[in-house]
């Protein structure tokens, strides 16, 4: 079988980091052939065409076909997976809210083009910021495609959280589990250590033994470090994260398609779980089962966690109201 994958913004930085990993089989495994559709705007077509030439030169056995286009109907034709990366990235000093108007106009037409042209079971992952609200806009414009098929990337935040947690505890990152992100992919996000495990065992005691005052460490060190990591990368590199974002995108889509053994994080449509207003695309602890994300239900939410989740969700509500007033949903 061959999977058709559309990547928007394929001529950009993240696109370049994604394409070769997909062609190498990191997304769908060593037996699944892929057909790539690279959707760009006219200014980005040259870069996407250059990437297509390099894909050819990579002689990837799994890569059946590459098409470069600036036409959304062609770009999403038959797409099983759509990775919506193309957007204007945040520069130094910009907050994600500044991007709403700039990027909101992109995702409505793309949602409509997905509904009209993609495969019936299409799964959409929005990477372009502000990712949660862009996913909301795309879903709202995609008549007939269930909102559950539109997701926003918060796996990069979870990967960052797991890496910081592992470094603090002095354990391999692969042993850290159950460290979900709640809310928005923004500085208000809540990386939640209250259920964290190391090698499958609760990590609370080990954490307290190392950091002492856990609430102070969360407040002053861990949560700001994770939530502001995007800005830190921009400050240090001079532009926003690329390879780590592409890698997290691979993690997200691979897990969605192939399933998870334990919890991870994804921005998915709320059905009112944990008091998050229905219809928002919010990050939750999730599992992927039978090709669908399922929110992990029944978790106890402490007072501090409740306050932090509510703050991030309030920002999502503000973003939704802003794009509503711009006529984008
Ligand atoms: P980039 O500027 O290098 O590339 C963006 C590409 O998108 C450009 O080639 C541009 O021509 C193209 N593009 C713009 N509008 C388009 C449209 N309507 N259709 C198709 N293509 C279009 O940026 P980048 O570094 O690759 O980042 C892409 C996006 O990903 C940004 O919004 C960035 O903020 C976001 N991002 C998200 C996460 C996350 O975790 N969710 C992490 C990192 C970056
Ligand atoms: C990130 O988290 O690295 C990206 O969303 C880029 C940004 O604007 O922070």
UniProtKB/TrEMBL annotation:
It catalyses: (S)-malate + NAD(+) = oxaloacetate + NADH + H(+). The keyword S-adenosyl-L-methionine does not apply. Its EC number is 1.1.1.37. Substrate binds at residues 90, 96, 129, 160. The active site is at 185 (proton acceptor). It is an enzyme of class 1 (oxidoreductase). It holds the Pfam family Ldh_1_N. Residues 154-321 form the Lactate/malate dehydrogenase C-terminal domain. Keywords: NAD, Oxidoreductase, Tricarboxylic acid cycle. NAD(+) binds at residues 9-15, 103, 110, 127-129. One of its GO terms (molecular function) is L-malate dehydrogenase (NAD+) activity. Residues 5-143 form the Lactate/malate dehydrogenase N-terminal domain. Belongs to the LDH/MDH superfamily. MDH type 2 family. Catalyzes the reversible oxidation of malate to oxaloacetate. This is Malate dehydrogenase. The lineage of its organism: Bacteria, Bacillati, Actinomycetota, Actinomycetes, Micrococcales. The gene is mdh.
């Amino acid at each position: 079988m061959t999977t058709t994958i559309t990547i928007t913004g394929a001529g950009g930085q993240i696109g370049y980091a994604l394409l070769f990993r997909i062609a190498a089989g990191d997304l769908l495994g060593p037996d699944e052939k892929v057909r790539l559709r690279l959707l760009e705007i006219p200014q980005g077509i040259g870069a996407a065409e250059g990437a297509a030439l390099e894909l050819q030169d990579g002689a990837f056995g799994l890569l059946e076909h590459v098409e470069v286009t600036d036409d959304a109907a062609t770009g999403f034709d038959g797409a099983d997976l759509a990775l919506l990366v193309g957007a204007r990235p945040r520069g130094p000093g910009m907050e994600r809210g500044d991007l709403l108007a700039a990027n909101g106009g992109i995702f409505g037409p793309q949602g409509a083009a997905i509904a009209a042209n993609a495969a019936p079971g299409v799964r959409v992952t929005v990477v372009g910021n502000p990712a949660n609200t862009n996913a909301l806009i795309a879903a709202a414009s995609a008549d007939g495609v269930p909102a559950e098929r539109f997701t926003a990337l918060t796996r990069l935040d979870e990967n960052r959280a797991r890496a910081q947690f592992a470094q603090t505890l002095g354990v391999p990152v692969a042993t850290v589990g159950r460290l979900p992100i709640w809310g928005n992919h923004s500085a208000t996000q809540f990386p939640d250590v209250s259920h964290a495990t190391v090698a499958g065992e609760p990590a609370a005691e080990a954490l307290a033994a190392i950091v002492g005052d856990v609430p102070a460490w969360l407040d002053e060190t861990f949560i700001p470090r994770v939530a502001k990591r995007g800005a830190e990368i921009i400050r240090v590199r001079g532009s926003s994260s690329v390879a780590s974002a592409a890698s997290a995108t691979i993690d997200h889509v691979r897990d969605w398609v192939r399933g998870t053994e334990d919890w991870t994080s994804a921005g998915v449509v709320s059905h009112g779980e944990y008091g998050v207003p229905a219809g928002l695309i919010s990050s939750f602890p999730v599992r992927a089962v039978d090709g669908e994300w399922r929110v992990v239900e029944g978790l106890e939410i402490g007072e501090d966690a409740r306050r932090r989740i509510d703050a991030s969700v309030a920002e999502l509500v503000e973003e939704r109201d802003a794009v509503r007033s711009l006529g984008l949903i």
